[in-house]
Amino acid sequence: MPQFRHSTRRAIGDQHGNVLNSTVRDRLEGNAARPSPSGCSERRTMLAKLFSYTLIGIDATPVEVEVDVSASSMPKTVLVGLAEAAVKESTHRVERAIVNSGYRRPVDRVVINLAPADLKKDANGFDLPIALGLLLASGQVAFDRTGNYAIVGELALTGDTRPIKGILAMALRAVSEGRDGLLVPTANAAEAAVVEGLNVFPVGSLAEAVGFLTGQLDMDPEAVDLDELFAQHSHMEEDFVDVKGQDYAKRALLIAAAGSHNVLMIGPPGTGKTLLAKRLPTILPPLTPAESLETSRIYSVMGLLKPGQALMAVRPFRPPHHSVSDAGLVGGGSPPQPGEISLAHKGVLFLDEMPEFNRKTLEVLRQPLEEGKVTISRALRSSTFPAEFILVAAMNPCPCGYRSDPRRACSCTPPQVEKYLSRISGPLLDRIDLHVEVPAVPFTQLAEMPPGPPSSEFRAQVLEARARQTKRFGAHAHGPTVNGRMTPRQVRKFCTLKPEAMSILKAAMEELGLSARAHDKVLRVARTIADLEGSDEIKPQHIAEAVGYRSLDRSVWM
To answer: Which of 99, 253, 410, 446 is most buried, taking the most CB atoms under 10 A from its CB?
Structure first.
């Protein structure tokens, strides 16, 4: 709850500052400037303290907003506490919002402190708590409503509230701190209310916030029906029924979805690589409430949630352009911000024309692909962002794109092809489980072939395979829940082979020159193929199919 502290000659009040003293009552009654026996007005110092939040990466950090108003011959407003430029500018906006809301701007010396002092504050959510602190410290209002509240929000010059970024992260932090409630702008209320166990009070203006805290205005907490939200925003337009032919590629994407495996599709332009990639999220399992909160928090911090959309209801699909920078892809800046790989968390990251990406930029994907997270280190602190996604990459077989197209001749020389393919390093390729050739579709298939199976049919198979994996890994609370993220130790435990299957894998290792990492990738993919068939045993045909998805190691890259 906003706390009030006051120092005068006659201080009355308990240690928590919940009771106003006589000087404040005098001010509220219009008698703040009573002359002393000597004929001079008394000098009074008044201090208000409220609680708010700032964002560090994708996490909310508590901030105490202290406002001190004292009589001075030189009226001045001072903002301290390592505030960034956007926060410093807020004092002028807050002063006009106070006046335009019908209150008086303090003409005394005002000191606003944002604690802790060593934490940079760069957010627009301090307007509302600063304004309330000014009104409280200047004696214009008295907060009678008891409770442990936190307050965030930006103010317009009219005194109306405006939405801010990262409200979901702030609501999650408020719950973890045991707050009784969170006062937020009305436009942010639905987003914050998806967090269970927290009373979210929407305020449309500074006057409404004052009315609520003074007890003059009763307000019901915002209520959100999560089932209705998911039903409203979970519809996807794309469907695999739109894709004719490409059965081999569809099979590979089915395996990728079932085991959370990374995919590289290679083929001439116009063969449907992008069409296929966009439809991968439609066959992935629906987001769980916990996954939705994880993903929505990132989008909330970046301000990417659509108006009226309180949370993410479908798995994200992020297709960054090949001109993206390192910071744009993996995150960066000061303070660090999430990049595209974190925005693709629990979804799909699609890199079209992969060789056109800067090679240095691609190399930074190695750690996230292995660990499912990325750590951005700076001099003062480091931030870790989640980045558990399925990578789907697409590329042409050569610079002109027609090396494997029987209908058009390739105009590229061998050195040009070699230079083009060398833009993707072997270590990065090793981290991609499935290499899929996507050939040109004959005209007869495009014209005469009936539509293929819908996404719902593929998703049913994926859900069955995922259920088998959940059962298998259920005893490992902190381990993976999908085959694609098994550790080497778990690969040895859950991917045992009989002699016939082992001989096929051994022959493939020797012929293709696979690395130890690629060896484990083959076993993980084979385990997923077996799960799709409902088999507890990895059979020779499962190993053979998994090895087939490593054929590009030999035919293209060697």
So the answer is: 253
What is the rounded distance in angstroms from the CA atom of residue 516 to the CA atom of residue 171? 45
> What whole-number distance in Å separates Cα of residue 300 and Cα of residue 60?
12
Under a CB-based contact definition with an 8 Å cutoff, are residues 432 and 525 in contact? no
- CB contact at 8 A, 378 and 336: yes
Query: What are 114's two structure tokens?
Result: 């944002």
Partners of 390 in the β-ladder = 348
Q: 249, exposed or middle or buried, with CB in 10 Å at 0-12, 13-18, 19+? A: buried
Residue range 232-555, CATH number: 3.40.50.300
CA distance 114 to 486: 45
pLDDT tens, residue by residue, 274-323: 999 999 999 999 999 999 999 999 999 999 998 888 899 999 999 999 99
Q: 3-class SS at 217?
A: coil
Three-state DSSP state, 484: helix
HEC readout, 402-428: CCCCCCCCCCCCHHHHHHHHCCCCHHH
Average pLDDT, the chain: 86
**What 3-state DSSP class applies to 64?**
strand
Q: pLDDT for 418-459, tens place per residue?
A: 888 888 888 898 889 999 999 988 777 777 777 788 999 999
Distance CA 492, CA 486 (A): 10
Check if the beta carbon of residue 19 is closer than 8 Å to that of residue 27. Answer: no
pLDDT > 80? residue 477: no
Kindly give, in sequence order, each residue whose CB lies less than 8 Å from that of residue 79, ignoring residues fewer than 6 positions away: 87, 88, 91, 112, 114
Q: How big is the chain, counted in residues?
A: 558
Sign of CA dihedral 181, 384, 431, 366: positive
What residues contact residue 306 under an 8 Å CB cut-off, 6+ apart?
none
Alpha helix stretches (DSSP H) within 390-498: 414-421, 426-430, 443-448, 455-473, 488-494
Q: What is d(CA 535, CA 537) in angstroms, rounded to the nearest whole number? A: 5
Give yes or no for a contact between 427 and 370, defined as CB atoms under 8 angstroms apart.
no
DSSP 8-state assignment for residue 283: G
The closest alpha carbon to 315, from 376, 392, 410, belongs to: 392
pLDDT band at 22 (very low <50, low <70, confident <90, very high): very low
0.85 exceeded by pTM = yes
> Which of 118-127, 174-183, 456-465 is least confident?
118-127
Q: Please give the CATH architecture assigned to the domain spanning 3-213.
A: 2-Layer Sandwich (3.30)
The torsion of the CA quartet 206, 210, 216, 220, rounded to 10 degrees, works out to 70
* Measured distance CA(300)–CA(331) in Å, rounded: 16
Is 513 in a helix, a strand, or coil? coil
Cβ neighbours of residue 10 closer than 8 Å, sequence gap 6 or more: 21, 22, 23
Are the C-beta atoms of 192 and 202 separated by less than 8 Å? no
